[in-house]
Amino acid sequence: MSDVVKIxxxxxxxxxxxxxxIQLALxxxxxxxxxxxxxxxxxxxxxxxxxxxxxxxxxxxDKHDMIETCLRIAVRDAVLKAVEVYIDQNRNKIEKAVxxxxxxxxxxxxxxxxxxxxxxxxSWNAADIDINFKTEEK
Length: 138
Prior knowledge:
By secondary structure, the protein is mainly α. The chain is 64% helix and 3% strand. It contains 4 helices and 2 strands; from the N terminus they run ααββαα. The longest helix is centred in the middle third of the chain and has 39 residues.
């Protein structure tokens, strides 16, 4: 008669231990492998993405380098922030200038709004209002 000992260990207990051992082994194997890390970084920078910086399943849209897209988005965000700060700092001046311009040319403003409304009624999918003021030199 053979003596058999059976121990059941839950997979939930074993799985994290094994995963941690694999992670530690990978970290140890890659430690000091600067060339490998540089290659991974270069590949990530050259990764083709869409205009929003996302990888899609359609290579037609994924034609921009990741770094190009990240820089474009970062510059755009910086410009938007700078404009926002400028507007906040000069809000009163801007509002006053707009009021003055409207007060100087009320009939042009009303005509532009009426013309745009009439045009948009003719074409239900187009609604543009284009208002231009010419400054009068004194």
